[in-house]
Specification:
The protein has 594 residues and is of the alpha/beta class. The protein contains 23 helices and 14 strands. Among the domains are: 89 residues, Arginyl tRNA synthetase N-terminal domain (Gyrase A, domain 2, 2-Layer Sandwich); 113 residues, no CATH class; 180 residues, Orthogonal Bundle (Isoleucyl-tRNA Synthetase, Domain 1), CATH 1.10.730.
């Protein structure tokens, strides 16, 4: 209804301009915005572009257009002109119709299926350590973007490229062989990814010790790092793995299986999922065929040491190594092959990589190479780059064992939610099992909302304590608003509302709430096109804030008439529905009671 009204309004503005000034105005020159709160009206037309046709002041032009719109569009009640802005006030009957015939419908905010498929690759962990805080932002961002794009009508494939091979994996394997004494996740009573991560740290400690010993013998630091015995053993293990040595491959499979079991538990608690897993152990050789093709067509060139390169100077980049002189792959080679494999599997129109901004250059190069190779699908590749996450205590350092572990952080959020809700007495009448479920819902909601309310490109400081605030710009505030509405609805439905007629007029706050609710589909569209869950997060916060103002200033259950009461309950119900569906797009659940 809102969409069709704006279309009618645009057509009438164009018609009025032609009638008044004989101007041939294109629709994209007609700009509407929400009227600023200090002025009367709900929709504002920017008049300045039309003065070139009217040859009159913005005020005179706005008044003449306003008069014509008032005559031609029955939904318009009045207008006013402030400088170059025409503010339109719509009749209460229009907003009542928007609520009852659009916003309150079960399919509100749902888009019809589009003929477009998109792959979103996120998480992309290494199998030598547990997931950490950076992975949490990655997973939440990828999952939310996928859910938003699904809501917008796209077919979405959620993929996860697991980095399960390479020297870093061998470091954990070698350390376990040397120091593990057969330890398993069961014997250590530890998640498998944590156990493997423990040995990654032990390797680094042993390596540093050997480097210092070699330096004490007179070797340079660079020389010591190369000649450290444990590093040479790790490289030898990698060579054995690539050669298919049975014992090495068996150890690799065993330790990776430990990690996958641990990852699955973390993903489940985080509330993310995947449709397709790719493994670098399966894909790391694929890019060699692409390299051969590039050489054949003169896109790549060979240097004296037989290494293969591409010159991207014309694209503002530099020369990039694609294959070492000994024929081994680099990450770029792997990513070229994997990109081709993903397209061969799904033929998707777009492929989005959710990866931190430290890899911006890498993806600029990858996309440029694939375009040089004339891949038809290369134009649909996009790097969703995001900033790092810091804690008040400082930056994360994984090799030193001081990484902010994802599992520990989620548990801390649960405990913080328990502490805060208990302090406020919000769980006094709940059973213990219900309390724990609520703590988890609030804790995870706080974590997810805090990380998603910020535009992806921005680096952010995550403060666990600050994220659980029932009065701030937080997930728990929005969750509490939803629970409050549900409480009102439970109490309201205890009474029989015989009179279901609609009111003749509504209060300004009721109109404001309906108007904000009506924006929801447009917010989904913008969030899908801009790949920004922050748009959803900030919208639902503004909606919750406005409902609380409405709740405190307008009586719902003690309305003067049954008609008003019924209408306000309907408005509250629609608000709860939009809050719930908005939060689900962020991967956040909202409780019925708090």
């Amino acid at each position: 209804m809102i969409t069709s009204f704006y279309k009618t309004l645009t057509e009438q503005v164009s018609s009025s301009l032609h009638s008044l000034y004989q101007g041939d105005i294109k629709d994209n020159q007609i700009t509407f915005q929400e009227t600023r709160k200090e002025f009367e009206g709900q929709i504002t037309l920017v008049v300045f572009p039309f003065t070139r046709y009217s040859k009159k002041s913005p005020e005179e032009t706005g008044k003449e257009i306003g008069e014509m719109l008032l005559q031609s569009i029955p939904e318009i009640e009045s207008f006013n002109v402030i400088k170059g802005f025409l503010n339109l006030s719509l009749k209460d009957s229009f907003w009542i119709k928007v609520l009852t015939e659009e916003v309150s419908k079960a399919n509100f905010g749902k888009f019809s299926k589009k003929e477009k498929s998109v792959m979103i690759e996120y998480s992309s962990p290494n199998t030598n350590k547990p997931l950490h805080l950076g992975h949490i932002r990655n997973n939440l961002l990828g999952y939310s973007v996928a859910e938003i794009m699904k809501a917008y009508g796209y077919t979405v494939i959620k993929s996860n490229l697991v980095n399960d091979r390479g020297i870093h994996i061998c470091k954990s394997m070698l350390a376990w062989e040397k120091f593990g004494n057969g330890e398993t996740p069961q014997s250590a009573n530890m998640k498998g990814d944590h156990l493997v991560g423990k040995y990654y740290v032990l390797f680094d400690q042993a390596y540093k010790k050997e480097v210092e010993e070699l330096k004490a013998e007179g070797q340079s630091e660079e020389e010591a790092k190369i000649k450290a015995p444990i590093m040479q053993e790790a490289r030898a293990m990698l060579q054995k793995w690539e050669a298919g040595d049975k014992e090495t491959v068996a150890l690799w499979k065993k330790m990776n299986d430990w990690v996958y079991e641990g990852f699955d538990l973390t993903y489940k608690r985080l509330g993310v999922d995947f449709d397709k897993f790719y493994y670098e152990s399966d894909t790391y050789l694929l890019g060699k065929n692409v390299v051969e093709e590039g050489l054949k067509h003169g896109v790549f060139f060979t240097k004296e040491d037989r290494s293969v390169w591409i010159d991207l100077s014309d694209e503002g980049l530099d020369e990039k190594l694609l294959l070492r002189g000994d024929g081994t792959s680099v990450y770029m080679t792997q990513d070229m092959g994997t990109a081709q494999l993903k397209y061969d599997d799904y033929q998707m129109e777009e492929s989005i990589y959710v990866v931190g901004n430290e890899q911006d250059y890498h993806f600029n190069v990858l996309f440029a190479i694939l375009k040089k190779l004339k891949r038809s699908w290369a134009e649909g590749l996009f790097h969703l780059s995001y900033g790092m996450v810091d804690l008040p205590s400082g930056k994360m350092k994984s090799r030193e064992g001081t990484v902010v572990d994802a599992d520990e952080l989620m548990e801390e959020m649960h405990e913080t939610a328990k502490e805060r809700t208990s302090e406020l007495g919000k769980t006094d009448d709940l059973a213990d099992s219900d309390k724990n479920e609520l703590y988890e819902t609030i804790g995870m909601g706080a974590l997810k909302y805090f990380l998603l309310k910020v535009e992806p490109k921005r680096r952010l400081l995550f403060n666990p304590k600050e994220s659980i605030d029932f009065q701030g710009h937080t997930g728990p505030f929005i969750q509490y608003t939803h629970a409050r509405i549900k409480s009102v609805l439970r109490n309201g439905k205890k009474e029989s509302l015989k009179n279901t007629a609609l009111p003749n007029s509504i209060l300004p706050l009721e109109r404001d709430l309906i108007q904000v609710l009506s924006h929801y589909p447009k917010i989904i569209e913008s969030a899908a096109l801009e790949l920004s869950p922050a748009l959803i997060a900030n919208y639902v916060y503004d909606l919750a804030k406005l409902f609380n103002k409405f709740y405190h200033e307008v009586s719902i259950l003690k309305a003067e008439t049954d008609v008003e009461k019924h209408f306000r309950l309907k408005l509250a119900e629609a608000t709860a529905s939009v809050i719930r569906s908005s939060m689900l797009l962020l991967g956040i659940h909202v409780p019925e009671r708090m």
